[in-house]
């Protein structure tokens, strides 16, 4: 195994269904490799919200060239929705490991502002590179200038992605404003339609009343004529 403190990779897991959203490689070694089964075991350990844990994992099923399989350490940090976990050699301290996980979580939240339930591995694929850069920076090795340049590059990439996400959110907000305005216009149109319907009903009611009054007036007129003729006839007979 190579000397120094090495982080061999990290994962991001959604807690609700333990979906592996992202897996970032770290340092590689020439004398052993980590099989997928170990990563699956690490994902299975991400099973509770709001926790921090660190322990060891026997790499019994790791592919090793003629020597005993190495013992690795794993570190997990979770919030309400996501888990961030890394595999490293035994030289990585718990404090440094969890500081790395906190930075990974903070960077992830800046890059992705959508609901965690909508995340897919394809959607968060862009996080692999900044995550890997963070793991490499947190490991020993490399000159100070290289580390500074990597940090600057990673910050620029994260900033660009964050700005793109903010722009998408703002565009979504504009679309929501348009929908709200359309809804208000429809509501005003509906109110106008209700007023028009009410006025029309009143006009129809008055038309009906006028028609009935007209019929009643005509009937009364004929009745008066009949009464007048009848009374006039009676008077003529008396004379």
Task: Provide structural commentary.
The protein has 239 residues and is an alpha+beta fold. Among the domains are: 1-60 and 70-141, Beta-Lactamase (2-Layer Sandwich); 203-234. The protein contains four helices and seven strands, in the order βββαββββααα. The protein has helices spanning 36-44, 94-111, 128-138, 144-238; strands at residues 7-14, 19-25, 32-33, 52-58, 63-64, 71-78, 82-88. Strands 2-1-7-6-4 form a five-stranded antiparallel sheet, with helices on both faces. Helix 2 packs antiparallel against helix 3 (128-138) and helix 3 runs antiparallel to helix 4 (144-238). The N and C termini lie far apart (146 Å).
Q: Structural class of the secondary structure composition? A: alpha+beta
User: Could you give the order of the helices and strands?
Assistant: EEEHEEEEHHH
Largest sheet: 5 strands, antiparallel
CATH topology of the domain at 1-60 and 70-141: Beta-Lactamase
Write down the overall geometry.
rod-shaped
The number of E-state strands comes to: 7
So, the CATH homologous superfamily of the domain at 1-60 and 70-141? Longin domain
Q: CATH class of the domain at 1-60 and 70-141, anyone?
A: Alpha Beta
Helix content: 55-70%
Continuous helix count: 4
Strand percentage: 15-25%
